[in-house]
Amino acid sequence: MVSPAIALAFLPFLVTLLIRYRHYLVLLYRAVLVGWLRDRLTGVSREQRAFQYLLAHAIPGDPRHVLQTFDQWCYRREHLSSVGPVKGRIVERLLYERAPQRVLELGTYCGYGTVLLAQGLPPGARLYTVTVDPRHAAVAEKVIRLAGFDEQTVELIVGPSEEVIPQLREKHGLLKADFVFMDHWKRCYLRDLQLLETHQLLAEGATVLADNVLFPGAPHFLQYAKTCGKYRCKLHRASLEYFRAIPDGIAELCYVGNS
Question: Taking a C-beta distance cutoff of 8 angstroms, is the pair 183, 105 a contact?
Fold first, then answer.
């Protein structure tokens, strides 16, 4: 039995922890607990609920309005782990500067990043987006079509990235990617980057962007990118999607090969 005196001695420490990590507790509540509860109560997934909101409020064929409506849902209703508007502006700027013809996205989720990338493509460019979850793919495809992009512009590929990447050239016609956006499982970033290297799918000078490298983080990926000699690296510091108080960042890699 803990005495009241000992319990009181720990109280300031606990209060300090709660204050310091309050934003992460709010994130846990909004991103995990609220979504889990509503999933159980409604029998409809949070991703499907978000799409229903888009159908009711977004302007079909207007990708920017689709993204803005998505942001409204995530700020006001339920948190979804998409790149979001703050880091999205970084992605948009780099995409505009590079003007790539072949873009690969790893981690489609609900299609937010896909729409963001597709709206910035130069004429004649093509986007390949990969997701492992068929349920997410079903929602993402509807979001992509709602935004006005057809299969000629965006190809949605369903399957584990470690199986899809080796097949991209022969099965999907992607010879080399000029621009890669990683926003899937963080533990897969390094493995999939090395797979892209092994299968020679990175064009010389290709840009590789990786989201959430600070939170929840991808330390092994960052360490490899900085030390392997194949990339010039830069970190764009920002905040976590829809949580301005939580630091995050996007890693920008420029592929220079083995030279």
Answer: yes
Q: State how far Cα 131 lies from the chain centre.
A: 11
* CB-count exposure of residue 43 (10 Å: 0-12, 13-18, 19+): exposed
Query: Which pLDDT belongs to residue 1?
Result: 53
For the beta carbon of residue 96, count every other beta carbon within 10 angstroms: 10
Average pLDDT of adjacent 10-residue blocks, the chain of 259 residues: 58 59 77 86 93 97 98 93 96 97 98 98 97 97 98 97 98 98 97 98 98 96 97 96 94 88
pLDDT reported for residue 44: 93
What φ, ψ does residue 238 adopt, rounded to 5°?
Answer: -155, -150
The pLDDT score that the predictor gives to residue 14 is 58
CA gap 25, 253 in Å, rounded: 32
Task: Give pLDDT, residue 213.
Answer: 97
* ∠ CA 213-215-219, rounded to 5°: 45
Confidence at residue 11, expressed as pLDDT on a 0 to 100 scale: 59
CA torsion, points 154, 80, 76, 38, in degrees to nearest 10? 120
Q: Is 92 helix (H, G, I), strand (E, B) or coil?
A: helix
Separation of alpha carbons 52 and 199, rounded Å? 39
- For residue 34, what are the CA distances in angstroms to 54, 80, 122, 166, 196? 20, 11, 39, 38, 37
Would you please indicate which residues are annotated as catalytic (active-site) residues? 183, 186, 211-212, 241
* Residue 177 token pair: 């990617």
Contact 93, 109 (CB under 8 A): no
pTM for the whole structure: 0.91
Nearest Cα to Cα of residue 140 among 116, 121, 120, 170: 116
